[in-house]
Each structure stands twice: as structure tokens, then as C-alpha cells.
Design a protein that fits this description.
433 residues, globular, 21 helices, 79% helix, 0% strand, mainly alpha
Length: 433
């Protein structure tokens, strides 16, 4: 074996060994990088240099702002209003509360950008409500956790910002636009699955649709939904950058939560900011250590070797696209979302581009694959949160989620093989894809 092959084996072997030993992901990434540098005889000062370089980015400043915006809005009393808005829109259908859950997640995801926040906030309200109205607890939980992944696709999503920074040269605005239709497609897919199960189990439906009631609830929810308009319209219209829009959205979210909805007092604001700091510390240490890890991957030519390895299996673009999804799905079972984006993107993006998948489309594929990973054992954080909120064994929730896994996989395949689903909206607004 060449010295380069030995260093690659040390890097990847030690990383996956530590993952299997349940090391915290940041430690696994950082230590495997250090071991790789030692095996190459490089100075260890390279490690902190690459960490600083990884977070020395203006675009990444949007991440703490979006996280803060999501926490403020998520704890500021908007959950009830978004649920009421969704109920006025789709509550009349068979299995109406399941549909409300899915549509509310689409609205809430556009504000929080977090599947975990969606599950914890909406789940604590909707799961008991669904059970009280005759829905099975495991079904209610399965609907909640799967629909929470819509928020990963619907902007503003800090995970999209992380992907755009990792992939280099990608417009955050284009990526935001690319997420709307896939997010809606995922919601429709989950609603179809919920409707079929609801009809089979004769779940109840709500009151008939009323336009006046819908407009009334829309007016109540306007201030919450306007936060998304500030970000998306501002970025797409070129009024300000993603980072500037995120900062403005934080100030707006603080104002709405404290003075309009009054779901937060100043003591609650400080508590929310404390939560933000904890989350941000985790995200930034992952970005920093993953930057050093990515440096080793690049110097060892791992992306090129991975591309050659995948292409040696088949030169059929369909097979390669399926393999890319399979790799991401497997990684999602053993790693959290941000590390997958940070580590897998430099390796797999060149392969995707070689078969005609654009960086924007691949970004949406990565986000959805990672979202599915959040729902799968052994490290599916959203799965654990849903089980905890519903007070159900994880095994029972996984069993109830199986039909919804199918809905999500169908959506993933459509996004993979029909590029227009992801790319039409960015192209319509003049972005280069």
C-alpha cells in the first residue's frame, strides 16, 4: 500500500470505528483527522488552521441567525396559530388531524427550519389531540416525525446554508427556491399515505371547509408567516444577502414573539438564547472539525477515488444515482445531518455532477436523504424525540412509520430522476442551475 492509501485507511477507518463505538461525532471527526495528519507526518498545527478556515465564512453567519430565529418563533406562541390555520385549510378531509399535522409542519418548517423543533413543538400539541379524537398513538407519532422533515426542505433552512457553503459557489437563494416544490411534494405524498390509512381505519374528519374561517385564521397567522417572506423575498429579490436577511428576521421574530403574540417574556427570551448558544456550539464545532477532515479528504484525493470506485460498478447514470442515494441513506442511519452534509458533499457531489445532476438538485437530494436518516435507528434524533413526546417504544413508532418511509422514498426517487421538480423555480427566478 502507498503512504496515501495508508493515510486514507487511517482517516476513514478510525472515523467509522469511533462512530460504531458511539463517540460524539465532533470527536470522531476531529480525532480521525489528527490520526491522519500524524500518519502523514504533517504538523498538527494544520488541524486548528483548517478548523479556523472552515468557519471563516460570511455565508456561515446566516446559520446562527436562522437558528435563533427558529428558536424565538418556535417558543413564541405561534404553534397554536399555525395548527389552527392548517385545520381551516385541510381539517375537513378524512383523517383531518393527520392532514393538519402535515400542513402545519410545512408552515412551521418554513419558520423554524428544524425537524427536531417541529416534532417537539407541534408534536406535543397534536399527538395528544389526535389520540383524544380516536387516532392511534403510533400513527399520530409517525405522521408527526415524517412531516417534520418538510421543514428541512422549506426555506429558510440552516442546513441548506451549510450545504451551499460546503459545495462552494452555490447561491443560497437558488437553493432556497429549489426547496419549495420538493417540500410540497413530500407533504402531498405523506397526505396521500395518511388518507389511505385513515380511510382503512375510519379515522374521523373535521368540519366542512369555510372560506371565511380560513381567511380569519390566515389573518391571525400573518405575522408568523411574514418572517418567511422577509427572508425569501429579500434574498430572491436581491434586497439583501442571506446573512443580512437572517439578521433582520431575528429582530423581527423577537418583536413578534414578545410584543404581538406575547408568547415570550424577556426571561423567556434569555432562555431561548441559551438554547441557541447550545445548538450553535454543536453546529460550529462540527463545521470546524469537518473542514479539517475535508482538507485531508482533498489532499488524499478521496473524492476522485470514490468517483472512480462508484463508476467501476456501473457507468449507467440511473444505477449511479441510486447508489448515491443508497450511500446517503446508509450514512443517515449512523450519522447526524450536519456531518453528512459536511463530509459527504465534497466526495459525492463530483460524482453526481458527472452524471448530469446539478449541485442545486443534489443539494435537495442530500437534505431529503438526511431527513430520512433522522427517522431511522440507531441515531435518528427526530425518531427519539417523537417517541419521547408520545411516550411510546421506539420499535412501535418505527413499525407505524414504515408506510411513510415508502412515501418519502417515492418522493426521493421523483426528485432524483425529474430535475425540474427542484430546478424549475430557481430557473424561473433567473438563477443559474
Amino acid at each position: 500500500m502507498s503512504p496515501e492509501d495508508i493515510a486514507t485507511l487511517v482517516l476513514l477507518g478510525s472515523f467509522f470505528a469511533m462512530i460504531l463505538l458511539r463517540f460524539p461525532i465532533a470527536y470522531a471527526v476531529g480525532l480521525s483527522t489528527v490520526f491522519c495528519l500524524i500518519s502523514q507526518g504533517q504538523a498538527l498545527v494544520t488541524f486548528p488552521q483548517q478548523m479556523v478556515k472552515g468557519i471563516w465564512s460570511f455565508s456561515l453567519m446566516a446559520v446562527p441567525f436562522f437558528i435563533t430565529m427558529g428558536v424565538l418563533m418556535g417558543t413564541g406562541g405561534i404553534s397554536d396559530k399555525l395548527i389552527a390555520l392548517a385545520n381551516s385549510l385541510v381539517g375537513w378531509m378524512r383523517g383531518g388531524l393527520a392532514m393538519v399535522n402535515i400542513v402545519a409542519s410545512y408552515f412551521f418548517g418554513g419558520i423554524s427550519g428544524s425537524a427536531s423543533a417541529d416534532t417537539a413543538s407541534l408534536g406535543s400539541i397534536l399527538i395528544p389531540m389526535m389520540v383524544d379524537q380516536g387516532y392511534d398513538a403510533d400513527f399520530s407519532t409517525a405522521v408527526t416525525i415524517t412531516s417534520s422533515c418538510e421543514g428541512l426542505l422549506v426555506p429558510p433552512s440552516h442546513n441548506m446554508v451549510i450545504y451551499a457553503t460546503t459545495a462552494s459557489g452555490i447561491s443560497v437563494g437558488a437553493l432556497f427556491m429549489a426547496g419549495y416544490i420538493p417540500g410540497a411534494l413530500l407533504a402531498i405524498s405523506l397526505m396521500v399515505g395518511s388518507y389511505i390509512i385513515s380511510v382503512k381505519r375510519n379515522y374521523p374528519k373535521g368540519a366542512p371547509f369555510s372560506l371565511s374561517f380560513f381567511l380569519k385564521e390566515l389573518a391571525k397567522s400573518f405575522w408568523a408567516l411574514a418572517a418567511v417572506l422577509i427572508v425569501v423575498v429579500g434574498v430572491v429579490g436581491g434586497v439583501f444577502t442571506a446573512t443580512e436577511s437572517a439578521a433582520i428576521a431575528v429582530v423581527y421574530s423577537l418583536f413578534v414573539s414578545v410584543f404581538i403574540y406575547r408568547g415570550l417574556n424577556w426571561k423567556g427570551v434569555w432562555k431561548a438564547l441559551d438554547t441557541c448558544i447550545e445548538t450553535l456550539a454543536i453546529v460550529l464545532i462540527l463545521i470546524a472539525t469537518s473542514a479539517a477532515f475535508g482538507y485531508c479528504l482533498t489532499t488524499l484525493h478521496v473524492p476522485l477515488k470514490a468517483a472512480n470506485l462508484i463508476k467501476s460498478v456501473s457507468d449507467n447514470p440511473i444505477i449511479i444515482a441510486l447508489m448515491l442515494n443508497l450511500i446517503l441513506l446508509v450514512l443517515g442511519c449512523i450519522m447526524d445531518m450536519a456531518p453528512i452534509i459536511l463530509i459527504a458533499t465534497p466526495i459525492l457531489l463530483p460524482v453526481a455532477q458527472s452524471i448530469g445532476i446539478s449541485a442545486i438538485q443534489f443539494g435537495v437530494m442530500v437534505i431529503l436523504n438526511c431527513g430520512i436518516g433522522l427517522l431511522t435507528p440507531p441515531v435518528g434524533s427526530v425518531l427519539f424525540i417523537g417517541s419521547a413526546v408520545a411516550k411510546l417504544p421506539m420499535e412501535k413508532v418505527v413499525k407505524a412509520t414504515l408506510p411513510f418511509y415508502l412515501c418519502m422514498l417515492i418522493t426521493l426517487l421523483l426528485l432524483t430522476f425529474i430535475p425540474a421538480i427542484s430546478l424549475w423555480l430557481p430557473m424561473y427566478f433567473g438563477y443559474s442551475v
